[in-house]
Amino acid sequence: MSKVKVGLVQMSCTADKVANFNKAISKIKEAAAQGAQIVCLQELFTSLYFCDVEDYENFKLAEAVPGPSTDTLSKLAAELGVVIIASLFEKRTQGIYHNTTAVLDADGSYLGKYRKMHIPDDPSYYEKFYFTPGDLGYKVFKTKFATIGVLICWDQWYPEAARITALMGAEILFYPTAIGWHQSQDEATNTEQYNAWQTMQRSHAVANGIHVVSVNRCGFEQEEQMKFWGGSFVSNPFGTILYKASHNEEAIHVEELDLEKSDRYRTHWPFLRDRRIDSYQPITKRFIDEE
């Protein structure tokens, strides 16, 4: 298919996991009613962003993937005839947990999962306490409507992840995300951080000649100290913003993407043609020390 309608669900969350899940279901239905064929939810949509603290109780939020949530979403996907991209806290086995996104096809089939590869460890983002780095590698999923790549939040900052996923055949890159501003920050810092976040992902669109869809959460969490900045957006294959959500409000948006535009941009700006793959071996080193 040359054209596909993608749905973005940007929402706020509470401590009530069931309420968050039901809210997401409602919003998926609304996006489908607006014509969405692929619907992407934000990172860890069933809960508050719990990685602000290192608390063993939070491991109780995890579940098997596939498991209860994917079973429910699979039925919903089949009922609505839409692809669902769902970010979940995966319990792989006792003591091993992942930040994982599952993909359900439009017929309800479970296509597989991607485990977040890059795990941050920063103030209010203590993810290394919870998540084992992904070991499935980068993934693409051949859905009914498009071949999609899924990366997760901190993966956004790494051009290597976007490039590899694009080279594997992804026609659209989706980034479920949870990122925000601490209330102690000034407006200039907030603006600079959001602009860097958006610019980095738009650069992935340009470098690889594919659409990028980034879906972030919104609302206040962490006892009102963290404002998740929303700002979900869609970029065309040359970095042009086709849609940008509010920083403050929940949003459901459907955007039609013309996947044939990738061929035009890649032909006129042949970055893939001119790659010097014979010279890239140093990229596998942590740092290149001078001899």
Give a description of the structure.
The chain has five helices and 17 strands. The protein has 291 residues and is of the alpha+beta class. The chain has one domain: Carbon-nitrogen hydrolase (Nitrilase/N-carbamoyl-D-aminoacid amidohydrolase), CATH 3.60.110. It has a six-stranded mixed beta sheet. Strands 8-9-10-12-15-16 form a six-stranded mixed beta sheet, covered by helices on one side. Helix 1 packs parallel to helix 2 and helix 3 runs parallel beside helix 4. The longest helix has 22 residues. The model has no long low-confidence stretch (mean pLDDT 97).
Features:
5 helices, 291 residues, Nitrilase/N-carbamoyl-D-aminoacid amidohydrolase, 17 strands, globular
